Amino acid sequence: MDQYSYAQIDSIVFDLGGVIVNLDYGLTIQAFSKLAGYDITQQYSQQSQAEVFSKFEIGSITANEFRQGLTQLLRFEAKEHDIDQAWSALILDFPPERVELLRQLGQQKRIFLLSNINELHLATSDRKFTEAMGTDIGTLADQFERAYYSHLVGDRKPNASIFQRVIDENNLDPARTLFLDDTAHNLVGAQQVGLQTIHVTQDRPIESLNLLNL
Question: Which residue range forms the structural domain that includes residue 29?
Answer without folding.
Answer: 25-87
